[in-house]
Amino acid sequence: MYINKAKKIVLKIGSSNVVDSRGKLKEKWLKSLVKDIEKLRKNGKEFVIVSSGAIALGQNYSKIKKKRLKIEMSQALASIGQIHLTNTYRKIFEKRKIKIGQILISPDDTEQRRRAINVKRTFENLFKLGAIPIVNENDTTATTEIKYGDNDRLAARVAQIISANILINFSDVDGLYESSENKKVVKEVKNINDEIYSFVENKKNSYGSGGMGTKLDAAKICMNSGCYMAIANGKHINPLDKLVKTNICTWFLPKVSSLDARKKWIVSSIGSNGKIYIDNGASKALRNGKSLLPAGITKVEGKFLKGENILIVDESGKDCARGITSFSSEEINKVKGLKSDQIENILGYSSKSEIIHRDDMVKL
């Protein structure tokens, strides 16, 4: 069972799981899910929850029953509902002495690499604090994302950014069915092709913005990121525990390992915006899997900002690595050749010690 081996798990919770047909929060269901999470956290697993339901809760609180709303009204309702949603999570987790943190994400936060790195660091620090991140799209400022967007793809992007092992996509069905007549669940998918798409019925519930099609889009992202994804029925009480025990779901298997996916992400997705030249000592450190520190940098070429893709060049002039820089070219020029503990004194503010972290670097 993939869940038993996973260290980092993203849970995507659909509106139909969180909110009932009257638009009221399913507190009993949420309490049972939190109990499941607490149980698995004792085995060292880390969780992120990507939760829908803010607009639906905002509608219920504001006594607005319309199913079709103008975007600006959806934004206002999301603002109201998000408070109720997050506060409910806080109260339920707090009873089990678990901290949470709220992260609202817009498309730019995941599609622009520099911002994606900042998001990743926020997740990492929440994990260090022992907190569970509760994520939603920033519906209050989004425009077409409310109308066309969904949390399926958002959850997959989050899983990609934090290098999650598994994304569990809770829905109101047991998985991907071969047909609506026999309700036979496809157990595993290794390749999303025309046959898989032929199984999709474009049906949505009253509140959800996605469907099975968007879940397949999410599965593609995960499969190309070295992450397993499951589509499972989240309507049961203790849904996570039930999934672990029964394995009733559809599993989408990654095409590449997590490491290979990361290489593809860094090497192929972004063009190089500059070069950093390093000495032999730094070259040896990189070959041994270390991060790039300022002490080994001899020269910077080009102008670039924090979060951009940079080539690392050794003393012989060969490209030895490529990575996402945590500093701008201007900052690196100021601290190159210095020890990490001198960075704050030179720049005048606290910053990271690594110019390029090993997790954001690929050796060539």
Features:
364 residues; Carbamate kinase; 5-stranded mixed β-sheet
Account of the protein in words:
The structure is a single chain. The protein has 16 helices and 13 strands. Residues 205-209 have low confidence and may be disordered. It starts with a helix and ends with a strand. The protein is of the alpha/beta class and 364 residues long. Helices cover 41% and strands 18% of the residues. Helix 3 (27-41) crosses helix 5, helix 4 packs across helix 5 (71-94) and helix 9 (151-161) runs parallel beside helix 11 (212-223). It folds into two domains: 2-262, Acetylglutamate kinase-like (Carbamate kinase); 271-363, PUA domain (Archaeosine Trna-guanine Transglycosylase, Chain: A, domain 4, Roll), CATH 2.30.130. A hairpin with a 5-residue loop joins strand 11 and strand 12 (319-324). Strands 3-4-2-1-5-7-8-6 form an eight-stranded mixed sheet, with helices on both faces.
Please describe the topology of this protein.
Blueprint: H1 2-5, E1 8-13, H2 15-18, H3 27-41, E2 46-51, H4 54-62, H5 71-94, E3 99-105, H6 107-111, H7 113-128, E4 131-137, H8 144-148, H9 151-161, E5 166-171, E6 188-189, H10 194-197, H11 212-223, E7 228-233, H12 239-246, E8 250-252, H13 258-269, E9 275-278, H14 280-287, E10 297-301, E11 309-313, E12 319-324, H15 329-335, H16 343-347, E13 361-363
Helix pairs in contact: 3-5, 4-5, 9-11
What is the structure about, briefly put?
The chain has 364 residues and is of the alpha/beta class. 41% of the residues lie in helices and 18% in strands.
Q: Helical stretch count?
A: 16
Secondary-structure element pattern, one letter each: HEHHEHHEHHEHHEEHHEHEHEHEEEHHE
Helix content: 40-55%
| Shape label | globular
The Rg value, from CA coordinates, equals 22 Å
CATH architecture assignment name of the largest domain: 3-Layer(aba) Sandwich
Q: State the CATH topology of the largest domain.
A: Carbamate kinase
Low-pLDDT sequence parts: 205-209
* Assigned CATH superfamily of the largest domain: Acetylglutamate kinase-like
Overall number of domains: 2
Helix-strand category: alpha/beta
Q: Biggest sheet, in brief? A: 8 strands, mixed
